[in-house]
Amino acid sequence: MKHSTLCLLFRASFTPTIHRFLSRSSFTQQARKMVKPNAKKVINFAPGPAKIPQEVLIHAQKEMLNYDDTGVSILELSHRSKEYAALNQEAIDNIRKILDVPDNYKILFCQGGGYGQFSFVPMNLMKEGGSADYIVTGTWSSKAANEAAKYGQVNYVFPKPKMFTAIPDEKDWTLNKDASYVYYCANETVHGVEFDFIPETNGVPLVCDMSSNFLTRPVDVSKFGCIVAGAQKNVGCPGVTVVIVREDLLDRSLPCCPSSFNYKVVSDANSKFNTPPTYSVYIMGLVLKWILKEGGLTEMAKRCVEKSSAMYQVLDNSNGFYNASVESASRSRMNVVFRLPNEDLENKFVAEADEQGYMHVKGHRSVGGLRVSLYNALMLHEVEHLIQFMKNFQEKYSK
Fold first, then answer.
1. Of 127, 216, 142, 233, which Cα lies nearest the Cα of 180?
2. DSSP β-ladder status, 206-209 and 182-185
3. Angle between the N-to-C axes of helices 380-397 and 343-355, in degrees from 0 to 180, rounded to the nearest 10
C-alpha cells in the first residue's frame, strides 16, 4: 500500500478522536468565541506602543488561525515560505508607494527597535576613524549621540540646551563638512518638540529618526541618506523597524558591525537574512493598506493638524491652567506635552482621565507632567472627547 494512502487512512480514523478532544477543550471553546472589539470603552493616547486602527486588529483576529488559506497562523508561517515572501514584498512596495521612495533607495525591515538604530546607524554609516554631527533637541537624539560616541567622534551641532523647548535657528548651527553624516530626530516624544523643516547639510548624508512621525505627512526622501522608524507609533506594533537607506551608503559599515545588523547584508537578503519579526511585518502591512485606503499621507497630515490644533487651542485658551512649555514653532503634532499648576492637580488629572477611559496621559517619567499622543490611528472625535474632559476638569479645579 502506498505511503499517501496509509496517511489518508490514518487521518480518517484518527480525525474524529481529535475533534472529540478539541470539542471538550475549554481552551478551544474560548478560542472559538470572537472577542468583542472595545468591550471596555477606552481611548488609547499612549506614546508607544500606540493605538492600531481597529479594523486592522479585527482583520488580524479573523485570520489569526488560518493565514491566506495556508492552514496555519501567520505566527507559525515560515519566513522562507512563498506566502511570507509575498507579504514582505507587498509591505516594501506599499512603503515605496506611500512615500514615493526613489528607486536608488533600499527599504529594510530590522529588529532591535529605534533604540537599536542608535548603534546600527554609526556602525553602518560612520567612516572608520571618522565623526558625525548630531542635532540634539530632546531625549532620543541625546541618547543616539551617546551611543554613536562608542563608534566615532560625535560633534554637537549646537551646545546641549538645559531645557528642550525649541529647535535652535539653523544660523546658530555648526556643521562639519567632513562628517560621515548629520543625525537628527524629527519628533521628540518626551519633550514634544518636532521639526517642521528638513535640515540643510550641504551634501553630507542626512540621517533621521522618524519613529514617532513616520507616515504622518509627505516627505521628500531624496533629501535623506537614511531614515529609520520604529513601527509601534504610526505603522503597527513593536518588533520591526523600517530603514530607508540610499544605495551608495550600503558599503560603509564598520568591521565591528554584526552581519544581522549590517544594512548591506539585510538588503541583499531582502530583510530575511535571519528570521524576521514576521507578525510585526504582517501587522505593519495591514496598517500600510489602511493608510492607502484612508487617503495616504495627504489625509494623514490633514488629520494630524486637525487633532493637534484642537489640543493646543485648549491649552492656549486656558488662562494658564494648562501650560504648554514648547515654543509654538516647534510644537509636536504627535505628542502634546503640558503641565498643570502643581503636581497634585496633575495626579488628579491622570487618575480621573483613567477613570473616564482616557489611557496613558501621564508624561514621561524623566520629565513628569502630562502628555497626549495623537498618532495616525487616533481619530478627531476621540480627541474631542478628551478635550471636553479637559474643559470640565479646568472648570472643576480652577475655582
1. 127
2. parallel
3. 130
Axis crossing angle, helix 278-294 with helix 82-99, rounded to the nearest 10 = 40
Among 12-21, 71-80, 237-246, the minimum mean pLDDT is found in 12-21
Half-sphere exposure of 76 (CA within 13 A, CB side): 10
Give the number of other CB atoms < 10 A from CB of residue 392.
12
- Give residue 399's pLDDT: 73
Bridge partner residues of 372 (DSSP): 336
3-state secondary structure 322-374: CECCCCHHHECCCEEEEECCCHHHHHHHHHHHHHCCEECCECCCCCCCEEEEC
Cβ atoms 276, 83 nearer than 8 A: no
Q: How far apart are CA 346 and CA 367, in angstroms?
A: 13
What's the Rg (C-alpha) of the chain?
24
Instruction: Kindly tell me the sign of the dihedral angle through the C-alpha atoms of 310, 316, 321, 327.
Output: positive
- The reported pTM is 0.90
Grid cell at residue 268: 541583499
- The helix/strand/coil state of 237 is coil
Handedness of CA 170, 173, 177, 183 (dihedral sign): negative
Give 149-164 pLDDT, tens digit per residue: 999 999 999 998 888 9
CB atoms within 10 A of CB 96: 16
Between CA 211 and CA 121 the distance in angstroms is: 14
Average pLDDT over residues 315-339: 96
Mean pLDDT, the chain, rounded, equals 91
CA distance linking residue 56 with residue 62, whole number of Å: 10
- Cα separation, 191 vs 380, whole angstroms: 22
Instruction: Please count the other Cβ atoms lying within 10 Å of the Cβ belonging to residue 309.
Output: 11
Closest to 181 (Cα-Cα) out of 245, 113, 259, 231: 245
- The residue count of the chain comes to 399
pLDDT tens column, 234-244: 999 999 999 99
Once rounded to an integer, what is the mean pLDDT over residues 375-384? 97
Question: Is the model's pLDDT at 221 over the cut of 70?
Answer: yes
CA dist., res. 267 & res. 282, Å (int): 19
Q: Scanning the structure block, which residue is given the C-alpha cell 474524529?
A: 16
* 63 and 56 Cβ atoms separated by less than 8 Å: no
Three-class secondary structure of residue 209 per DSSP: strand
**Which residues are the active-site residues?**
140, 209, 233
C-beta atoms surrounding 203 within 10 Å: 7
